[in-house]
Amino acid sequence: MDFTFNEEQVALRDVARQACEREVDGAALRAMADDPIGFTDELWQHLVELGWTGMLVAEEHGGAGAGLLETCIVLEQMGRIPMPGPFFSSSVFAALAARALEADDLLPGLADGSRRGTVALAEMGHGDPLSTVRTRVRRRGSDWVASGHKPLVVDGHTAAWIIVVARGEDGVRSFLLDRSGEEASTSSDGSVSLEAVPTLDPTRKGARLVLDEARVVPLGPLGGQAGLWRRVLDDVAVALASELTGVADRALEEATEYAKERVVFDRPVATYQVVKHRLVDMFHALEMSRVGAQYAAWASDADDPAREKAAAMAASYAAEAAVSATGDNIQTHGGVGFTWANDAHFLYKRAKQNEILLGGAGFERQRLAKMLVEAG
C-alpha cells in the first residue's frame, strides 16, 4: 500500500508552508502572542481566502469537502510557525464536532469564516476528558439550561458560538451556546461568564466559561452521545499530532542550522559527537511522529478497523517526540535558546500545551494499553 502523497497533496503541503511563513514572521508572531485576541483580521481572512477554514466542511455547506489527511497536511505546516489564531479551535475542533452532531446550520459560517466556533468539553481533572465533564443540564419548561465550569475553552473569548458538552439524564449530551461576540450576560436566561485566561502557550489563547442556569439549545441525536464524542476526540487527537509533527520539524531545522553556525573551540558545534547524536535522535523521533500521524489521518478517512488504535498511537508518540525535540532545540542553542528573541520557546510551549490538551499523551497511552490487552 502506497502512503506517499499524491501530486495534489504535495502541492497543498508546499503552498501551506509558503503561505504560513509569509503571513507570520517572528515579529508578527510576537505581536499576536502579546495581543489578548491572539490574531488579526487580516490573517484570518487570508486563511479564509485559501479555503482552509472550510476544509472539513462538505461542499454543499460551502466548504472544500477535504478529508482529515489534507487538513493534517496544512496543520503540520502551521505547527512549524507555530500558527496563532483560532484555526484549530474553529476550523478543526468545532467543524468536526458540528459535522458529527449534524448541526448543518453551523457549517456555512465555519466554512466562510464569518462565525467562528469552539468546543467546551474538558473540566477539572485528568485522563479521559469525557470523564471530567460535570456541567449539568436540565429542562426548564420548554427550554434547556446548563450550569457548570469549563476552565479552558480554546479561543472561547473570540468565538461566536460554543458547543458545550454536559451531562443530563441520558448521559453526555451536546448543547449550543450562542454568544455572537458577547463577553458576558445576566438575564432571565441565566448568567454566562466568559473571560480570557493566561495559557502556557501565548500563541494559542484560552478562556474560562462559567454557566449558571444559562439557556442552551440541544444538538445531535437523542440519548447519550459519548460514542460520538469519542470519534470526534480521536480525530482531534490526530490533528494535534500533525501539528506537533510540524513543531518538531521546525525544532530540528533550527537546531541543525544553529549547530552548523555556532563555533566552539574553533569547531562548529555540529561536529561534536554528542550534538550529532542529539540531532539524529530528533530526526528519528520526527520521522516516526510523521508516519504515525499520516497513517492515523488516513485510517480515519478510510474508517479503517485500526483507526482508534492508530489515533492513540499517533497522539501519544507525537506529543512525546515534540516535547523532546523542542527541549533539545533549546539545549542545542545554549543560553540564547532561553531568550524571548529566539523562537525556540514558542515551539516548546506549543508542544507542552498540546501534550496535556484534551487528556494528553498519558491518557492516550492508557487507552492504547487497554485496547491491546482487550485484543489479546
Arithmetic mean of pLDDT: 94
**Strand portion, in percent?**
15-25%
**Uncertain residue segments:** 183-188
The end-to-end span amounts to 26 Å
Task: Return the structural class.
Answer: alpha+beta
Write structural notes for this entry.
The chain has eleven helices and ten strands. The protein has 376 residues and is of the alpha+beta class. Residues 183-188 have low confidence and may be disordered. The two termini are 26 Å apart. Helix 9 (307-333) runs antiparallel to helix 10. The chain has three domains: 7-115, Orthogonal Bundle (Butyryl-Coa Dehydrogenase, subunit A, domain 1), CATH 1.10.540.10; 119-219, Butyryl-CoA Dehydrogenase, subunit A, domain 2, CATH 2.40.110; 226-375, Butyryl-CoA Dehydrogenase, subunit A, domain 3. The strands form two sheets. Strands 1, 2, 3, 4, 5, 6, 7 and 8 form an eight-stranded mixed β-sheet that branches.
